[in-house]
């Protein structure tokens, strides 16, 4: 990503037929580098629950170089023979409720 971008603007003003004024303006805008967000889950570490269980996970300490604009919680894997029904509530918020 570029750190700076230049914008050139020219403004022409004509007064009567013989007078002309030209104003040139150069605007330099600084852009900062965009870095990836960092997900922080509480409680920390690897968790293990015996089902049925009810618990919550919190991502409120997650950060971004500007601001966190959304949250998305998903189940990425289950035990091979698992028939357990797990309900996720708040999967688009900073706190996930898990019930089984």
Describe this structure in words.
The chain has 100 residues and is mainly β. It has strands spanning 4-15, 19-30, 54-58, 87-89, 95-99. The chain has a 3-stranded antiparallel beta sheet, with no helix packed on it. A two-stranded antiparallel ribbon has the order 1-2. It is rod-shaped and about 85 Å long. The two termini are 45 Å apart. 1% of the residues are buried.
Shape assignment? rod-shaped
- Cα distance spanning the termini: 45 Å
In order across it, which strands form the biggest sheet? 3-5-4
Mean pLDDT: 77
SSE succession:
EEEEE
Let me know the number of strands: 5
Largest sheet: 3 strands, antiparallel
Compute the gyration radius: what is it? 27 Å
Number of helical runs? 0
Structural class: mainly beta
Q: β content, as a range?
A: 35-45%
Helix content: under 10%
Low-confidence stretches: none
Topology, pairings included?
Layout: E1 4-15, E2 19-30, E3 54-58, E4 87-89, E5 95-99
Antiparallel strand pairs: 1-2, 3-5, 4-5
A few lines on this structure:
The protein is 0% helix and 37% strand. The protein is an all-beta fold and 100 residues long.
């Amino acid at each position: 990503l570029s750190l700076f971008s230049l914008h050139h603007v020219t403004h022409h003003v004509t007064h009567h037929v013989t007078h002309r004024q030209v104003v040139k303006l150069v605007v330099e805008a600084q852009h900062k580098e965009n870095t990836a967000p960092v997900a922080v889950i509480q409680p920390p570490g690897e968790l293990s629950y015996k089902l049925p269980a009810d618990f919550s996970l919190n991502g409120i300490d997650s950060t971004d170089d500007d601001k966190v604009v959304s949250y998305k919680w998903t189940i990425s894997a289950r035990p091979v023979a698992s028939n357990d029904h797990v309900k996720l509530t708040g999967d688009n918020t900073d706190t996930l409720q898990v019930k089984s």
